């Protein structure tokens, strides 16, 4: 192959890659602009995500309502189980601490003054 032909082929390939890079940069700029608009509309709140990583979407929520209800129930049962285990081991949770403080405040005892 002639060096001049090789140079021209390389130049064509480089032009193709450069065009792809420009298109990707434009696409990235459009995505970032959309994210900025979304962030401005949301205010200080972050994007809500499900554990599998789907962005919060009302349509997704409607179409997968049974799955979401099942997951919520599993989470509730797991939370109750954790609370039961904590009580069984004697570790107080936040609610237990509040109840203990209230009961201590309500008991009559000698004056500290």
Mind explaining what this structure looks like?
The protein has 113 residues and is mostly helical. Among the domains are: 36 residues, no CATH class; 33 residues, no CATH class. The chain contains four helices and no strands. The protein is elongated and about 90 Å long.
In short:
With 113 residues, the chain is mostly helical. It has four helices and no strands.
Describe how the helices and strands are arranged.
Blueprint: H1 3-42, H2 58-63, H3 65-89, H4 94-106
- The parts where pLDDT drops under 50 for at least 5 residues are none
Gap from first CA to last CA:
103 Å
Measured as a percent range, the helix fraction is over 70%
- Number of beta-strand segments: 0
List its salient traits.
113 residues; mainly alpha; 0% strand; elongated
């Amino acid at each position: 192959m002639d060096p001049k032909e090789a140079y021209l082929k390389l130049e064509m390939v480089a032009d193709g890659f450069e065009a792809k890079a420009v298109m990707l940069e434009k696409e990235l700029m459009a995505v970032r602009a959309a994210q900025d608009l979304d962030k401005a509309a949301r205010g200080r709140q972050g994007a809500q995500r499900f554990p599998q990583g789907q962005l919060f979407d009302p349509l997704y929520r409607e179409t997968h309502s049974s799955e979401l209800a099942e997951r919520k129930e599993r989470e509730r049962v797991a939370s109750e189980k954790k609370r039961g285990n904590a009580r069984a081991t004697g570790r107080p949770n936040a609610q237990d601490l509040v109840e203990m403080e209230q009961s201590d405040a309500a008991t009559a005892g000698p004056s500290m003054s």
